[in-house]
Amino acid sequence: MDRLLKCMAPNLRNLFHSVLDWDKVEEIRLRVNQPLVIKEQQIEYGLNAAGRCRPSEGFRVNADDIARTVEIMAENSWYALEDEIRAGYLTLAGGHRVGICGRVVLENGLIKTIKYINGLHIRLAREVPGAADQVMPQIVRSGRIISTLIVSPPGCGKTTLLRDISRQLSNRGFNVVVIDERSEIAACHHGVPQLDVGWSAYVLDGCPKAQGIAMVLRGMAPQVIITDEIGHPNDGLALADAARAGVQVIATCHGSAWDSVRERAWMRHGGAAFQQVILLSRRSGPGTIEQVLKLD
Asked: If you write DSSP's letter for every residue of 83-148 in order, what string do you get?
């Protein structure tokens, strides 16, 4: 966690000595004039000079703490990261995702940037080798990959599961291409994956999914395409192209129930790319498999 702590303002960095088990930390929440909050599995707590405490008794983050943290995270190159910032997040080395809230600046009705940052929501990324062990018999049957859509609400372990599926498929010798639009799956830093997605996986980093699918179909001869957070109608059209090309797809999308997901616009074309759906929850911790649905 040293790299993550180095991205914090000094006032904040000095508080984290009392975090005893970083492997359990899922989120760090910073809001101007509000207490710093750490989410650790199902527990939330604050930090002060004495150590862990109730959130209401913890260190209160000020505007300078937020501003300094953003400067460090952006490596003083805010404008070089505008595409990510317009989407409301930054991705740090190691794959940690930082959601951003503040004043949205519009230009011709489109988001140009975000300024006057008032909140940062840090979601920690980590490898969990073996996270996909339970689903791999569903993903690979008789030596064939089964195209699969993984559905869950946020925070249920979709990306962690997807990363380990990539690792396991790749290490079995399948030609895997990861289209990592938000740099969360492989956590590329300067183009190099920081997290293990397998020895025979290619990673297309920072590329919009629809464009990335078209690119890899033309040039990479994938057996399986892996990507995260399907949602735009263009994603559905690109997934349909992959299916027509005979390429299998493993992807995720947000949702709490299959009935609501199947009615989304992208499913009109993209639904044909999948042979099954895996529904996740947090009922027994992140990555709890609730149901596997076979599609016609």
From this structure: HHHHTTEEE-TTS-EEEEEEEEEEETTEEEEEEEEEEEEEE-----TTTTTTTHHHHEETTEEPPE
Task: List per-block mean pLDDT (blocks of 10 residues) for the chain, which spans 296 residues.
Answer: 86 82 90 95 89 94 95 78 81 86 91 92 90 94 96 90 97 97 86 92 94 96 96 95 97 93 94 95 85 89
- Domain of 202: which CATH number? 3.40.50.300
- Tokens 């830093």 belong to residue: 189
Q: How many CA atoms lie within 13 A of 10 on its CB side?
A: 0
Q: Compute the distance between CA of residue 251 and CA of residue 239 in angstroms, rounded to an integer.
A: 10
pTM of the full structure = 0.83
Residue 43 bridge partners (DSSP): 40
> Is residue 88 domain-shared with residue 146, that is, in the same domain?
no
User: How many domains are there within the chain?
Assistant: 2
Q: How many CB atoms lie within 10 A of CB 285?
A: 11
Segments forming the whole domain that contains residue 84? 2-123
- Take residue 270 and report the two structure tokens written for it: 């993209």
